[in-house]
Design goal:
Largest sheet: 6 strands, mixed
Radius of gyration: 20 Å
Number of helices: 11
Oligomer: single chain
Distance between the termini: 55 Å
Length: about 300
């Protein structure tokens, strides 16, 4: 039987691509943009947010929707009905990141002529991302071993070299209000030869105060807002310079503040988390690693 797959979050699309199943994709979310060849596929979700608003306004809108028990995203049920999928891949990890599992279940129950299997991803740690890749592959009956082996070899190349000095690193997942980075990000920082602060492995990303940032006074600050590319991150990060404590941070004084493309990398729990690790390694240990991401996926914030 031929698979007809709809992916409702970017990381799922990237997992399908890594497993060699791109030609079986028939629909995608409004946020799926990689690989390039999927961009002509029908879009099966839309956002109720205006993502052109500022960081603070977006955060306010998100909290307002969540407090009203409303979803941030809308599922285009008619489009899904027309596409007749055999499988829909969604997530149950973060209501802010993509359509929720419960919304997808409700939408699928309303379909008349197709009864797709729902695969729901819920990773909080790197191993759980790899487990999801394996589970998707097994559900769709394709091999996964070579895909995971290649990813693990790239990880091993880095971790085998980063064992000495460990600068303290704050990853910022949001700018206004400030949010640290949790889930798999602290793991990636430590694999890249850093010591993560103000964020815990396997835990949701925490809001942090300026007092906490000042007290932590990290050696390195890496800005990776969820959903923002490098250009947008550069634009939004300017507001940090307005805070009176910003210029006193040692990372700022020592030119150790970096902007990244948080949308394409860090915030997508899929195969490109290894690219994200390579970006971190290149930033934290330029004497050891040059992967060619500078200027494309990250830059110094000056």
């Amino acid at each position: 039987m031929t698979h007809r797959i709809i992916t409702l979050l970017p990381s799922a699309t990237e997992i399908i691509h890594a497993l060699g199943l791109t030609e079986h994709l028939v629909g995608r979310s409004h946020e799926c943009d990689y690989p390039l060849e999927i961009q002509d596929l029908p879009v099966c979700t839309s956002a109720k947010l205006d993502t052109k608003r500022s960081s603070l306004q977006i955060d306010t809108d998100v909290q307002s929707l969540l407090q009203s028990a409303l979803s941030i995203y809308q599922i285009e049920t008619e489009t899904i009905e027309q596409l007749q999928p055999t499988h829909i891949i969604t997530q149950d990890q973060c209501d802010v990141c993509a359509v929720s599992f419960s919304d997808v279940k409700k939408a699928v129950n309303s379909l008349v002529s197709s009864h797709p299997e729902i695969i729901s991803l819920q990773p909080n740690l790197l191993q759980e991302v790899w487990d999801d890749i394996k589970r998707v592959a097994q559900t769709l009956d394709v091999p996964f071993e070579s895909t995971l082996e290649e990813l693990n070899n790239r990880i091993e190349f880095i971790t085998s070299k980063t064992k000495n000095e460990q600068p303290s690193v704050l990853a910022l997942e949001w700018i206004e209000p400030l949010m640290g980075a949790g889930n798999w990000i602290p793991e990636l920082i430590e694999m890249a030869g850093g010591k993560a602060v103000l964020g815990s492995s396997g835990q949701h990303s925490p809001y942090i105060t300026w007092d906490e940032l000042v007290n932590a006074n990290p050696d390195v600050i890496i800005i990776m807002p969820c959903g923002f590319d490098l250009e947008r991150t550069h634009q939004e990060a300017q507001i940090l310079k307005n805070h009176p404590e910003w210029k006193n941070l040692q990372a700022v004084q020592q030119d150790q503040v970096y902007l990244t493309d948080g949308n394409a990398y860090f915030n997508r729990p899929g195969p490109r988390l290894v690219d994200s690790l390579e970006i971190l390694a290149e930033i934290l240990h330029p004497e050891l690693f040059t992967f060619g991401y500078q200027g494309k996926a990250w830059e110094i914030f000056s």
